[in-house]
Amino acid sequence: DAYQRWEDRDRKGKEPKACKKNFAKAIMAFKTFLDEYPKNNSNPNVLMQLSFIYVTMLQEERAFTLWERLVTNFKGSAFVPKARLRMGEFYYNNRKHKKAIEQYKIVLGLKSQLRPKEAAMAIYHLAESQNNIGDYEESAKTFYEYITGSDEGRYPNDFRQEALIYMTGTV
Fold first, then answer.
1. Which of these, 77, 115, 121, lies nearest to 103 by C-alpha position?
2. Lower CB count within 10 Å: N or C terminus of the chain?
3. Which of 26, 52, 46 minimizes the C-alpha distance to 34?
4. 131 Cβ partners below 8 Å, 6+ apart?
5. How far apart (Å, rounded) are the C-alpha atoms in residues 47 and 33?
6. Predicted confidence pLDDT, tens digits, the chain (171 residues)
7. How many Cα atoms are found within 13 Å in the side-chain-facing hemisphere of 166?
């Protein structure tokens, strides 16, 4: 891309401007599809794709309503665990830890449908949320579950060091 070429030239010349992304056509196409085919099997995928556009546009509340719609209307979809994980992350990032905990517990009940990194994020953020509401005993147990799971290869160990620090601070 233009920016990389500029960097390769040791930043000589005028810095290229990032192009603004316009998602209006994609949003309209996805919304039209959802309106015209409300029961279509592709709707969970369309809802997730549209939610990713809203997240990219920093419109998380709009994305959240799509995740809610997905988990409510398409309970058997393979996208439900991912939508629930996103809902948990939304609550976590907005410091609504009790609601985040609810979502993470649901997600962990479906963890066989998640990639190991997604399951690791869910269990780690569950433990952090428990810690943040003062439920230190549960938090320590959850961090321990994550640590042993990472030691056994069930989860990536990306957060292992931090989990040990948190866990020792909660007991």
1. 121
2. N
3. 46
4. 139, 166, 170
5. 10
6. 666 676 777 677 777 676 567 899 999 999 999 999 998 999 999 999 999 999 999 999 999 999 999 999 999 999 999 999 999 999 999 999 999 999 999 999 998 888 999 999 999 999 999 999 999 999 999 999 999 999 999 999 888 988 988 877 755
7. 28
